[in-house]
């Protein structure tokens, strides 16, 4: 998006969407995002968002986390 995100946006997203929103299903996630506003900022073109697939970056992050856990587990074995 064009422009700068307002200071405190991340904290507000965590509170309003992740902690209070019903994001366990697509309809709830879309509703939470559509209703979200913070100091004049909103999520933008929500209808164009694809909730049906994971991004490559997300999948790589999951693999890295799993690899880190495996390394930790291996280091803890006698």
Description of the structure:
The chain has one domain. It is 54% helix and 0% strand. It has helices spanning 9-19, 26-35, 56-76. The longest helix has 21 residues, at 56-76. It starts with 8 loop residues before the first helix and ends with a helix. The mean pLDDT is 90.
Strand and helix order = HHH
Q: Considering DSSP H and I runs of 4 or more, what fraction of the residues is helical?
A: 40-55%
Shape: elongated
Kindly state the mean pLDDT as a whole number? 90
Number-wise, the strands total 0
Domain tally: 1
Q: Regions with pLDDT < 50 over 5+ consecutive residues?
A: none
End-to-end span in angstroms? 51 Å
Strand content: under 5%
By DSSP (H or I, 4+ residues per run), the number of helices equals: 3
Largest sheet: none
How would you classify the helix and strand content by structural class?
Answer: mainly alpha
Q: What is the rounded Rg?
A: 17 Å
Ordered list of secondary-structure elements with their pairings:
Elements (H helix, E strand, L loop, with lengths): L8 H11 L6 H10 L20 H21 L2
Short account of what is shown:
The protein has helices spanning 9-19, 26-35, 56-76.
Supply the key terms.
78 residues; mainly alpha; 54% helix
């Amino acid at each position: 998006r064009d422009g700068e995100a307002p200071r405190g946006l991340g904290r507000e997203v965590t509170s309003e969407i992740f902690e209070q929103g019903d994001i366990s299903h697509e309809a709830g996630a879309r509703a939470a995002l559509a209703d979200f506003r913070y100091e004049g900022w909103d999520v933008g073109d929500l209808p164009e968002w694809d909730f049906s697939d994971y991004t490559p970056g997300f999948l790589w992050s999951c693999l890295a986390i799993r690899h880190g856990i495996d390394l930790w587990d291996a280091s803890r074995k006698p």
